[in-house]
Automatic annotation (TrEMBL):
It holds the Pfam family Nop16. InterPro entries: Ribosome_biogenesis_Nop16. The lineage of its organism: Eukaryota, Metazoa, Porifera, Demospongiae, Heteroscleromorpha. Transmembrane segments: none annotated. One of its GO terms (cellular component) is nucleolus. GO terms for biological process: ribosomal large subunit biogenesis. It is found in: Nucleus, Nucleolus. This is Nucleolar protein 16. Belongs to the NOP16 family. Keywords: Nucleus. It comes from the Eukaryota.
Length: 177
C-alpha cells in the first residue's frame, strides 16, 4: 500500500479534467487578448487566430533571429555577390509599406519615459567615501579593508567609486577633510 506522500503526489500530478478544470483552461486561453498591454495591438488582435498568424498580419516578427539574418563571415572573394543576395532576401522578408501599427509603436517608443539613473543609497555612499578617504584609488587595499563586509572585489569597488563620483553624495569627501 502506498504511503500518504506518494498518494498526495499522484493526486497533485494528474491533469484536472473535471468540468471546472476544463472551464478554467478555456478561460485562461481566452484571456490572451486581456494580457496584451499595448492597446494598439490589443485592438487589432484576433482571438480566433494563432499568435503566429496575428503577428504576421500585424507586420511583426515572432523570431527576430529569423526575420533579420545575421551575416556570417565568409572567406570568399565574391563579397559583392553575397551582399546582393542578402539584400534580395531582406526585401522579401520585410513588408514594402510600413503599417500604421508599426508607426504607432514607434511613436510610443519615442514618447517613452527615459530610464531612471542609478541612485546610490546613503549608507553605501558613506562606505565608499570612507574607502576613498582611507585608500585613495588603491583598490587592492580597499578589498582588504576590514569594513568591506560584503567582500566586494576590486572591479566592483572600482565601479562603485565611479558611480560615487557621479552621484550627489560627492560632498561627503569634502566634509571629512
Amino acid at each position: 500500500m502506498p504511503t500518504v506522500r506518494k498518494r498526495r503526489s499522484r493526486k497533485n500530478s494528474r491533469i484536472n479534467n473535471t468540468r471546472y478544470g476544463r472551464r478554467l483552461k478555456k478561460r485562461s486561453c481566452k484571456s490572451v487578448k486581456n494580457r496584451i498591454q499595448l492597446e494598439c495591438i490589443r485592438e487589432r488582435w484576433d482571438s480566433k487566430k494563432t499568435m503566429k498568424q496575428n503577428l504576421m498580419e500585424l507586420g511583426l516578427s515572432i523570431d527576430p533571429n529569423r526575420s533579420l539574418p545575421v551575416r556570417q563571415p565568409n572567406n570568399s572573394t565574391n563579397e559583392v555577390d553575397d551582399m546582393a543576395v542578402e539584400n534580395t532576401e531582406l526585401q522579401k522578408s520585410t513588408p514594402s509599406e510600413q503599417t500604421d501599427l508599426i508607426s504607432e509603436l514607434e511613436a510610443i517608443a519615442a514618447n517613452a519615459p527615459p530610464n531612471k539613473p542609478f541612485v546610490m543609497s546613503p549608507s553605501e555612499a558613506k562606505f565608499i567615501a570612507y574607502l576613498i578617504m582611507r585608500h585613495g584609488t588603491n583598490y587592492k587595499k580597499m578589498v582588504k579593508d576590514k569594513k568591506n563586509y560584503n567582500q566586494l572585489t576590486e572591479g566592483q569597488l572600482k565601479k562603485k567609486c565611479l558611480q560615487f563620483h557621479k552621484s550627489p553624495y560627492v560632498y561627503l569627501l569634502d566634509s571629512e577633510d
